[in-house]
Design goal:
Residues 10-282 form the Tryptophan synthase beta chain-like PALP domain. By secondary structure, this protein is α/β, with parallel strands linked by helices. The protein is built from 8 helices and 10 strands. 49% of the residues are buried.
Length: 298
């Protein structure tokens, strides 16, 4: 009998949705988190990485052996490096030098070349300049509709099915905004009353993977009307909730995920009979060298 075994790419998506057992229970609402760190390269960005490369292949824009270039703060770069390794592309990643050592090492482990610059804005500018110079092809997660499409076709339907259509609030940190754009579009098509809540760092916060973009760098895939509410994240609140998730729920995640759950706890105090879903976008082992887990503050 011939058995068809999955490839690594087949294992992207269909991540667990689990209920919080301690945090926020006093609200009486149902608080759920989607564990995107269970993807093969460890984050929600596995979904758009595969989507952007496979659709570019189908459209004839890239072919194995080409050089791909991308600006990234970390998770997208790791995911693209993995997919490039699967499919036979050379991957050049441009990222802020402030990114954690774990992220840099993970990218090079997959065979990617790293270029370090001072900021994400500088990384985006350099990627486009290198493409214009003929050094490779930029997938451009900030402007590529195959980024939100991955979540419209995957993450959104999964959440709808896993909550049996009972979801009332969706909460996600915003970086490229691909996750919140794609999930919002799908969920609103199922039930326009579902509230979509986005998170951005406040003026004093520096949280890996999410940004308050200057107007000229705002991702072109972002459509403001798809987000019902935006909450500003405080650095300490995001980090404290991240540590509490590990200690009280056994969920080991990064700072932006802690922020998403902190926002979900805030919203849960404002509503009744609600089913809230937050995205846990990656795993905590990506941040160990930053020292964020060393604090005793909870």
């Amino acid at each position: 009998m011939h058995v068809q075994y999955p490839t690594l790419a087949d294992c992207i998506g269909n991540t667990p949705l689990v209920r919080l057992q301690r945090l926020g229970q006093e609200s009486g609402n149902t608080l759920l988190v989607k564990l995107e760190g269970n993807n093969p390269a460890g984050s929600v960005k596995d979904r758009p990485a595969l989507s952007m490369i496979e659709r570019a292949e189908r459209q004839g824009r890239i072919r194995p052996g080409d050089t791909l270039i991308e600006a990234t703060s970390g998770n997208t770069g790791i995911a693209l490096a993995m997919v490039a390794a699967i499919k036979g592309y050379r991957m050049v990643l441009i990222m802020p030098e402030s990114s954690t050592a774990e992220r840099k090492t993970a990218m090079t482990a997959y065979g990617a070349q790293l270029i370090l610059v001072e900021s994400m804005e500088a990384a985006r500018d350099l990627a486009l300049a290198m493409q214009a110079d003929g050094q490779g092809k930029v997938l451009d997660q900030f402007a590529n509709q195959d980024n939100p499409r991955a979540h419209y076709q995957g993450t959104g339907p999964e959440i709808w099915q896993q909550t049996h259509g009972q979801i009332t609030h969706f909460i996600s940190a915003m970086g490229t905004t691909g996750t919140i754009m794609g999930v919002s579009k799908y969920l609103k098509e199922q039930n326009s009353a579902i509230q979509i809540i986005g998170l951005q760092p406040d003026a004093n916060a520096s949280i890996p993977g999410i940004r308050r973009w200057p107007e000229t760098y705002l991702p072109s895939i972002y459509e403001q009307e798809r987000v019902d509410r935006v909450i500003d994240l405080c650095q300490a609140e995001a980090e404290n909730c991240m540590r509490r998730l590990a200690r009280e729920e056994g969920i080991f995640c990064g700072v932006s995920s802690g922020g998403a759950v902190a926002a979900m706890l805030q919203v849960a105090q404002e509503v009744e009979n609600a089913v809230l879903v937050a995205i846990i976008c990656d795993r905590g082992d990506r941040y160990l060298s930053s020292g964020v887990f060393n604090s005793e503050s909870i």
